[in-house]
């Protein structure tokens, strides 16, 4: 751990990922990693590069103890390139993804109190996507998610991305997709961030980053003040550190170009993006750069913080915010094949 810290400082970097745990159970990519009641739940993913059939593992990581365990639950779904969201402080809802043979739009839910996987059923009037993978699923409230991304396979996909509101009812174990009346650029492997908007009319925007050749984020939803009741995790220390990093003058004022399968976490008014795969190069495509999108002023500002440490390259990884720390979990490394068994936290030297 000391080596990672000194490496970041020695090379003049303002940041690094510091390892805090290591377990072979965590070595996977294109999985989901969701914080629920102070635990990280990892579902599925690919265990090695080139694998066609995803894992059906459900792994719980305790960040306090630094320990990971495979949960002995039946009917854990085969999934990769899916997304997941906590519901009701009890359920982990897995939405869509690849099951080894097709792209799905179904909802499976882990009841963390009973330790059981449940297959929820669609309501009458459900208008589901054709099939989802490498999409995003963002909580708008405890029973409403916003799903965005390209539908179908490479032969059937549309030239635009559809946006759906996914309504969930834990009491009846049911769900219902409703397609919104507007579209986005066709994206896959992007990320989404629900961020506050600055200016005379505050509110929230759901922004999509990457997954196509566009540099600028795209709006996938906009709400006036008071409409979004979702309370993001509090991270006052990390938010202050990010503000100091942004104002340090060490970052380049440029956003990510043609990036996919990166991670994104919201920390107050900041979206923190890391790693991913660039579509602009034929070789050395996996990245290790940190980007910060600062919404405190209008227009928002991009800051790019490059990295020279090739061991930090990641694709198909996840970041989770918990207890005022940003955690990095899993992902393939520089070769695009070997999954990282490490859990790291973002360390800023400002």
From TrEMBL:
Coiled-coil portions: none
UniProt keyword Cytoplasm present: no
Keyword terms: Kelch repeat, Repeat
Highest rank taxon of the organism: Eukaryota
Family annotation (InterPro entries): Gal_Oxase/kelch_b-propeller, Kelch-typ_b-propeller, KLDC9
SUPFAM superfamilies: Galactose oxidase, central domain
GO molecular function: cyclin binding
Description of how the protein assembles with itself and partners: Interacts with CCNA1.
PANTHER family referenced in this protein's UniProt entry, alphabetically: KELCH DOMAIN-CONTAINING PROTEIN 9 (PTHR47196)
Protein name: Kelch domain-containing protein 9
Annotated organism of origin: Cricetulus griseus
